[in-house]
User: What shape does this take?
Amino acid sequence: MNEALWAAGRASGVTALALLTASVVLGVLNRSGRPLPGLPRFSIALVHRDVALAATAFVGVHVLTLLFDPLARLSVTDLLMPFAGAFRPFWQGLGTVAFDVLLAVVVTALLRHRLGLRTYRTVHWLVYAMWPVAFLHAVGNGTDARTSWFLEVAAVSLIAVTIAVVWRLSAWFVESSHARQELR
Amino acid sequence: MNRTGLHVDWTRCDGRGLCVELLPDLLGRDEWGYPLPHRSTPGRLLTEVPPGSVADAEQAVALCPLLALTLTTEAAT
Ligand code: SF4
Assistant: This one.
């Protein structure tokens, strides 16, 4: 049973990292206002939402399984209070930080029509800080961190998010940037 | 019979075009990507929404990334 919990805890963690990565890339694509072939803009918005919710669900499984796993020695306080854990407290604390930020991001995104644009957007920007923290947590805390399949997932994730952020910061990011810059 | 209108807050809209995709019968895009009604409606509405398009308009309101859209209903006189 403990073996199964431990395995599920690790597998869901890696899956969550991959899905969070996909969600960040889709979110950046969504922000650009560009459609993909066969995927109009509103579909990208919906897929971004669904992938983000799936990532959150896997983070939930990850946290819950490890909560019941004696090896991880995770306690309920660790879910809210970072860096107080028993097992690799620094790396686990990064996971706590990312977890709490993720919850805030999801809740404010789902309630954005009630909270207003500013709150939703400010909290959503925290994702750019949350993803690296979650990534470091995965690499530093994960007991699979030195296996080649994990390193492949981590490397692909890092490259994908880096490309998305570099593109995001480029002058030609927004779909109509060409027409709009000619105007200036 | 109530009349439904689509209102856009131009201080927010960034011309991302989701609403144009969802309401192609009502909206086109100008060259900077901003929504442009096919038929102009008098007053401050972006466009009037015919009954058959109300569901799509509600989707657009829900999905506009900048929360720039609102629907208004008024009783027809
Ligand atoms: S979806 Fe919103 S931001 Fe995009 S063009 Fe329509 S009103 Fe503007």
Remarks:
- Chain A has nine helices and no strands.
- The radius of gyration of chain A is 18 Å.
- The CA atoms of residues 74 and 93 of chain A lie 11 Å apart.
